[in-house]
Amino acid sequence: MATTNLSSYDKAIIPNAKNLRFGIVISEWNADITENLFKGAQEALMDNGALATNIVRLDVPGSFELIYGCKHLISSQKFDAIIAIGCVIQGETKHFDFVCEAVSQGIKDLNIQFDIPTIFCVLTDTTKQQSLDRSGGKLGNKGVECAIAAIKMATL
């Protein structure tokens, strides 16, 4: 369980993102959560110099589709980093396990296959409250953390 604010970072050590281009793929499933993650990511990118015109958004139906959406952006346009935003909340069936495993492996595979970093911003929580806490609630916003990771990885 996260015990620190996910939105905390030292802006003085973050590279300027002015000349970087970002693709953000967002799952429409659990949209109340994923929209907050997107807002956090977008604000953090722009707070660190990224231009709004250099942030491209692509919506996909669910977290499983994030992999294809990220691959589509990687293959179709020039980006310095991609952020995959989703939220999978555990239910009563094994579906949670299958989706979480597939998405994490798929994003790992994209990082191996392509020279564009793909950042895993998928909440995999037990309850909706945990997701709310991590998407702008008492634990901050994982979208911010992932945007900072995208900037750092894009400038390696």
Summarize the topology.
Elements: E1 22-27, H1 31-47, E2 55-60, H2 66-76, E3 81-89, H3 95-113, E4 118-125, H4 128-133, E5 135-137, E6 140-141, H5 142-154
Parallel strand pairs: 1-2, 1-3, 3-4
Antiparallel strand pairs: 5-6
Helix pairs in contact: 1-5, 2-3
Quick overview:
The chain has helices spanning 31-47, 66-76, 95-113, 128-133, 142-154, and strands at residues 22-27, 55-60, 81-89, 118-125, 135-137, 140-141.
Output mean pLDDT: 94
DSSP summary: helix tally: 5
Strand order of the largest sheet: 2-1-3-4
- Radius of gyration (CA) equals 15 Å
End-to-end C-alpha gap: 29 Å
Largest sheet: 4 strands, parallel
Low-pLDDT residue intervals, each spanning 5 or more residues: none
Helical residue percent?
40-55%
Task: Count the E strands.
Answer: 6
Secondary-structure element series: EHEHEHEHEEH
Tell me what portion of residues adopts beta-strand conformation: 15-25%
Quickly give the structural class. Answer: alpha/beta
Q: What shape does the CA trace take?
A: globular
